[in-house]
Amino acid sequence: MAIERKPIRRGGIKSAGYDRNARILEIEFDGGSVMQYSGVGDEIARRFLSSSSPMSYYKDVIDEEFTQKRVN
User: Fold this and answer.
1) Cross-strand partners of 44
2) Is the residue at 1 inside a domain?
């Protein structure tokens, strides 16, 4: 499944995208790794994608809270 990611380029995150139907948030980090987080609700994804500090939001709300899978 390909999730369209949009450039973020802030705080160590290169790009991110969200699949609303599958409830999967995909994040590409500056180091090149791509992670998918499942079970992410619309509001959390929206707040992350529009955050002025996406890495802080990621660490506080997403990391370790959702099932993650490395895709690259």
Assistant:
1) none
2) no
